[in-house]
Amino acid sequence: MKPLQKAKVPRTRKCPVCESESWRIAYGMILPDARELMPKTVFAGCCVFMDERLNLATGERELGSPDWECQNAECRHQWW
Ligand SMILES: [Zn+2]
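^ thats the input. predicted complex w/ zinc ion below
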């Protein structure tokens, strides 16, 4: 068992498209000193953008805002 990471440090995920490292997207006003505690985070500001995806479980389209952004400059895939 690995020791628990500090809660303020978000983990990264693998992009489902290109398998590059992907970072969590943080919305809202985040002060610079708070940002320093959040490495590997994309700061999207206040504009929450909506995206559409196909829910494979139900076969229906649903709206949401992406939580993850691929850090590969040629991919930039966003998903949640
Ligand atoms: Zn990608």
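The pocket of zinc ion is lined by residues 15, 17-18, 20, 70, 72, 75, 77 (CB under 6 Å).
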